[in-house]
Fold each of these.
Amino acid sequence: MFCIRIHEHGGLDKLVFEEIPAPVAGPGEVLIRVKATSLNHLDLWVRRGLPGVRFPLPIIPGVDAAGIVQETGPGVTHVSPGDRVVVAQGISCGHCTHCLNGNDNLCKDYKLLGEHRNGADAEYLAVPARNVIRLPDSVPFESAAAGALVFLTAWQMLVDRAQVRPGEVVLVIGASSGVGSAGIQIAKLHGARVIGVTIGEDKTAKARELGCDEVIDRGKRNIAEEVRRLTQKRGVDVVFDHVGKAVWEDCIKSLTKGGRLVTCGATSGHEAVTDLRYVFYKQLQILGSTMGKKGDLIKIMTFFEQGALKPVIDRIMPLKEVREAHRILEEGGQFGKIVLAV
Ligand code: ZN
């Protein structure tokens, strides 16, 4: 099969398009003919390498996948060859307390496709059967691959961790990113007023189209000051962040008393400074979040089918153009997700 592999960490030239033997479906596994995958920031970290983190090289990157079941291994009963499916990206042991409680993303053996084992930038992908979810006919492969990880991530952040309620005000940092565009829609679905934060006039207009009630252009305005003005000095109930260092102080200052800050990443840097006086005086909660429960992906696909949530696709490129796709994501030139058609 054709795939993208990383043999050593570094620049764009480390993404190698090559042909290797296709995997097979072992017992309890499903082999998928991948039709679409999408780029996530994780792909950039895996390509560049991270200090103190050892990735199993060579590795096929790509954490999101949608496609057609090619073959099923012994013991697989819930899908058959020819079925349209989307893949739950996290692989867990299936028998520890967290897994049995449905919190599979807290499993100590939790592993992600394209990070700890071969991922989706390939024609074929073999995964455990419990990671394979049927895809409704009306949801295109490209939408499923664009939306799975970012909506799952944003769902856990807002619904499980921050527990957003109707009438609350949610500040979505990085509104033009994949996870931001999911966060805006999920917050609106739960009846919140949404203030988006992005950079540039074009992205500001698009964030508004996506459902933001107000948008702050952080290239022109200070986030905390604008939040103060837009909320009549009250502040927001929830801050949804994945940018980190560059916006962290503003995120803390933007919260109202009893507010919650939920974070799933730090694309601008992880060494942020927190003024603890705000935390105790305003009785804030800082909540961490990574991925989400497999079961929530079924719910999200139903919302996609109904049109209540819509993955935002910036562009669709052939798998072969993965280097250019990485370059665009690295420069932040996209609005929503870059999908790779396989
Ligand atoms: Zn487990």
Amino acid sequence: MIPVRVINYKCIGKIGVIAIDHPPLNVLAHVVRKQLLDTINAAQHDNSAALVLYCTGKTFIAGADINEFDSEPVEPTLRTLFAGIIHSKKIIVAAMHGTALGGGLELALCCHYRCAQPASKMGFPEVKLGLLPGAGGTQRLPRLVGVQMALDMMLKGHTITAAQAMQHNLIDRIVKEDLPQAALAYTQELLDHCQPLRLVHNIEMHSPSTSFFTTYRKKIARQTQGYFSPSKIIDCVEDACTLSFAEGIKNERKRFMQCVVSPQSGALRHLFFAQRHARKISHLLSPPPTPRSITSVGIIGGGTMGSGISTCFLSAGFPVTLLELEQDILARGVRTIQTNYERGIAKGKVTEAHKKECMQRLITTTDYAHLAECDLIIEAVFENLDIKKKVFTRLDALCKPDAILASNTSYQNIDQIAAATRRPQDVLGMHFFSPAHIMQLLEVVQGKETAPDILATIMTIAKKIKKIPVVAQVCFGFIGNRMFEPYLAQMHLCLLEGALPEQIDQAMEKWGMAMGPCAVGDLAGLDIGYKMREGLSAEQKNEARIFSLSDHLVSMGRLGRKSQAGFYLYDAQNKRRSDPEVTRLIESESEKYGMKRRSINDDEIQRRLVYALINEGAYILGENIAQRSSDIDLVYVYGYGFPPYRGGPMYYADQIGIKKIYAGMKELSEQDPLWRPAPLLKELAESNRSFANYRRSD
Ligand code: NAI
């Protein structure tokens, strides 16, 4: 078979122009490396005086091919290709547009000169995949931009703009006209001025003081806690300061390989692919429905969630009509949106101009009639089914046909909400997480009657508002909150059996959770669960009696952070400290249940809480509430602070082995009937399969 041509080459005047044409992202797959190297080698012998390397399509090379990390490297590897560039006898100019990432940026660093279009961005996102730039990037970048900037770029994994790149010497020229013409003019200029073959590895390193790295390591210790690759990146940059380039490269290679085979990188790469898969709605694939056009958004309720959701849509460029019951509550909602932007400005993430532009798109009202022309309306009123049904009946009466009606409910039944309208096909759940303008997860809840094109529309909108959408079917609590219940039940049981809030939180935080469950309860407000339980049936209430401790705290006015007391006491800075009164309450609850308190170790706490998540996840998967196990992983990592480097609860279970998990679960169920191992766990354990290779039966 003749390989597809992904590299085009032609001479324009004295300059050889190499165009990479490998859509959509021009990644450095084997076919690109091979043809590119052949082209560069051949160009050494033609009449060209210099070479320009650019990409067609929407971006410069956006990285290496991640799929290749799991297999043996095939020649020419990145390193072989880069050696070809470095040994070129002719100047090679990299001309960037779009996003030059990872291996793409490493390639540009091997070229003799770099130019970029003003809107282009550059970065090394490897750390997000548990890796490091492994083809010389850790040695070249600090030589160009300095140690501090190089560390910041590689440890945060963020992109920088062309202007920042110019300021820090990462590129040599910002070119305003189209590529490749602009790059040709720049290259001609280099030739006219007889510029040398300039290679980054020959630039002298400016090493910082000896204490720099110790201080830097301390500074970032908290944010990189539990992660493997950041410390390896720092080691590499330290080498760049102390060793020769060749030795630095050798060590970088060794560390890169350690990262590639680390379980962490496996988990992070799993999450990367999980995000791609989540957008695929398997049961709606053929024929793919055409999304509806959304140009204006209405939000009902300007409380915690409504104001966050408004911020989200405003930031993405949508005009938003925010509706509240009364003017003064509306004004409070607007202030919250303003504060959201001001916090962003204080952190340097948002500009004053952006805030102004977004606030200008905000329309406020107390009159439902103003929602009539909105394409998408999201309800975020009190968590009460009757109130929500009334809101939807009202929307049905006034909204234009084809408008999408969404609810941000955490627990209520979307089908019942949809039934309050004459257009259930236009209704679905859009479950945001708090704070809605920051948290990346969006559960998209498909009702029994939700039309496929609605679902497709919301998946598209999710991308525009920079969310990770995960489709869930209707059930109490959908994916995330449903799994959270047994997790919290185990927390309460551990408390009753002998643990204290600080021990549970510390154990779970040590395990990697962003926040322990007692602290999460205090942050969200213990009254939320209390109110939710109030609405349960008698039978459900009986099952939920294990939560009596939390309910007790609520009845004492200890709602969590908002009342400066919950499981903990809080000072003005929200710093938590334990409270003997809570200890006494827990002990008396234990007594009430006739439980003899015992010492529980961290290992048991971690195992019980994590197993609770896995077990409910297995129920959810078995009932087809989630499409695939990786969707559940996304929910937990991006909505509930599950450590990304463990890949999510289902991925974690697969790594441990389902057989082992099931055996452990059976053992727990023999001690406590509250444990009901999911049928799917049994099925997978007995057939030696994993969550990852389980497919829905329909
Ligand atoms: P909130 O109490 O902060 O805000 C609700 C707002 O809705 C209030 O400002 C109220 O004046 C307004 N409202 C009530 N009835 C209304 C009506 N008929 N028309 C217009 N406005 C009305 O509540 P929050 O926390 O923002 O929750 C809203 C929804 O979002 C609930 O369904 C909740 O379960 C859900 N949710 C809450 C999360 C959280 O962490 N707070 C997370 C995810 C979902």
Amino acid sequence: MRLQVYKSYEELSKTTADIIINLVKSKPDAVICLASGDTPRRTCEIVAERGIRERIDFSKFTFIGLDEWVGMPKNNAGSCYYFFETLLIKPLQLSSSQVHLFDALSKNLDDECKKMDKTISEKAGIDLMVVGIGMNGHIGFNEPGVSFDNYSHVIDLDETTITVGQKYFKDAVILKQGITLGLQHLMNSKKAIVIANGTKKAAVIKQAVNGPVSSLFPASIIQEHENGYVMIDEDAATLINK
Ligand code: F6R
């Protein structure tokens, strides 16, 4: 794992967007998985802005959404679907055949998981995963205590995720479960990047980077990824032993 610290959130976002765009340019049929949430928001905006301005061909890559709140309608502005729809899918005119997001309203969530795993294995795996880190060290909805061996699965959300997750919604919502790619997807991806910004993330970044590798703190698994990066701004880097 390599650690990279950037001056600001903007610089972190620009660099992350560069990595995504350069991959699509060098490998047009790349498979890319992104998290939603506050951290990758600016990255997605930059990818879309540059994609349009520079007329980058995004028509051949495969987009995978990392996770979704179980039971969340797509048109809820706090859903992961809505995030990607407004920030990437619409602006870049991605076709439905190249976009793979969990349907969290499906009556058969196990089938949703199997479908996602099949899509990823048929595409010969994920080239790049860009993920955030939760205030409990989760990646996607891989909550503390999750097995490192999981592929896609449905999981009961941790109290921290339920509380912090309210920030995405205008009105209070009941959040109970998540559907998510597993940490095996992360470990099997050709490149994995954990991004974080702000002083509020300093303690969890310290634990992910300097703490023991443990399923009790899922993001710590990034230490064992051969091509794993932790890319953060200076505020998120204040507590780590460099
Ligand atoms: C969202 C996701 C979550 C977030 C994490 C950090 O799709 O997978 O694991 O990445 O909770 O969220 P933010 O970026 O809002 O701090």
Amino acid sequence: MATALDIGGLPAVWLRDNCPCPLCRDPRTGQKLFQITDLPLDPVAADVREHGSDVEIVWAPDGHRSVYARTWFEAPAEPDPRSEDAKSLWNAAQLPASRFEFDWNDYARDPVPALTAVQRFGLALLRGVPCVEEQVLAVAGTFGFVRETNYGRLFDVRVEERPNNLAFTSVRITPHTDNPYRDPVPTLQLLHCLHNEAAGGDSGFVDGFRAAALLRAEQPDAYRALVCTPVPFEFRDAHTRLRAHRPIIGADDAGRIREVRFNNRSMGTLRLPAGELAEFYAAYRAFAEILGRPELMLTRRLDPGDCVVFDNTRVLHARTAFDGAGRRHLQGCYADLDGLASTLAVLDRTVGDAS
Ligand code: OGA
Ligand code: ZN
Ligand code: ZN
């Protein structure tokens, strides 16, 4: 027999705000039809009855009637899908190819494993993606929407004669997240390899959440300095002037890691009292040293047909220098995690509905 449900400790306003009845929620859209200020100031559950798996409440003073499923009361709070609590943090050795590499044809049949890897590990590598120009846009279109920027809908990563970014040269690029000078940043990045015949130019990926968690454990004061100091990031070329003031490590109010922005190329001049500057720089260096630990970096040379999809608020990417005489050409684009999460949720629901 079902035990009596104790709603005594639950705030009446919370229960009223979550009333599922068609006067409170539009049955077509499921969206709420009232404002918080439309509710009685002091609603009282005047009568509570259980009918099988439902609980009915009649409210005073207005006589409104709410019916809730018992299971609704018992649902756990969902963790923020963007925070470290919803992720699996990794060192390179903990991320074998089988966990993040997927064949393009398998992906086309069932994208769920690869998209889940992006959510969980922050990274998926699709192999055997057709080696044609602009294919990276089609890959983004399989799960979401391209985020156009000043670099275009897509950007070519190859040696340019007049580069506006060091990515478009053959120099080494140390672990970084892209576009920290944008607010909000593009939360996903894709890089699709069309040619990689140059000596060098190997790719590396680092779990920035793992690195931030290590800093928090090893040097809590340094961690705090990076969470608390907004840093001016900037980008400028002949047509563009972008600036964003955000901390290197973003954490929520409960202290959970949520975002990493790290890019030595585009950090502007921080202006603070001298003592705070010294403290920040010690912390910045400490984090950079952790990010540089070899055991953290997953190294993987991209072959033509490889397309990496990664969480640009978490996973840092890098490449070694390459010999500019050899041909190396990637095409990249940005997209966002919300679209990917939505695609995954819809696919998961379809699986659930079919069973
Ligand atoms: C980039 C970048 C790395 C590479 O385009 O954002 O970091 O492998 N490129 O060339
Ligand atoms: Zn209602
Ligand atoms: Zn980059």
